[in-house]
Model the fold of this input.
Amino acid sequence: MDRKVIVFIAMSADGFIAGPDDDLSWLSVVETPGEDYGYGDFIQTVDTVIMGRKTYDKVLTFGTGFPHKERKCFVVTRTRAGKDENVEYYNGQLPHLIALLQSQEGKHIFCDGGSEVISELMNHDLIDRFIISIIPVFLGSGTLLFRNGRTRQNLRLQQSTTFPSGLIQISYDRER
Ligand SMILES: NC(=O)c1ccc[n+]([C@@H]2O[C@H](COP(=O)([O-])OP(=O)(O)OC[C@H]3O[C@@H](n4cnc5c(N)ncnc54)[C@H](OP(=O)(O)O)[C@@H]3O)[C@@H](O)[C@H]2O)c1
Done:
């Protein structure tokens, strides 16, 4: 398949993508000048972004401008419709959106999260690659990346990289 659906996400060592109250401050434990953990190279390979409405709202609070202005961005939601200056709100079924995108020419498709959208995509086995940056911290509570209650999906290790900050990045392809 040419256009892969790829998750690129940071996760605490105990499996959370956000702490209580959407806290992301723990990501700072691996902040290193001049090190972007491959994000810059990765983002060049995608032209389309899918994210959940809660993740979109969180990104807007960073106050640094919307990072995907030159990409097509779909925000999955049941509560908003139409478009704004950054994104298109998507109210349909995620499998339909992925099928439509994969029927068109383009670069890879980045699923930015959060866990609700990733979970829905995984329920339909629609994620081709997971690039997970494990952050050396136990958060104890918050939003788990992987939810309970799914059937088994085998993975093939594509790459693993360790960084001096303690971050470990694993890249798994879904083995079909
Ligand atoms: N660590 C990281 O790298 C990372 C990356 C991304 C996100 N995050 C964090 O994760 C948290 C958000 O994750 P989350 O799981 O709570 O929320 P989310 O997946 O970002 O958004 C959930 C919302 O998306 C919409 N949605 C989800 N599935 C849908 C479906 N099948 N059909 C229609 N709409 C659907 C709903 O929006 P409506 O309520 O509008 O209907 C739902 O409330 C934030 O704290 C964010 O900062 C962390």
About this structure: Helices lie at 39-43, 53-61, 94-102, 115-123. The chain has a mean pLDDT of 97. Residues 29 and 135 are 8 Å apart (CA to CA).
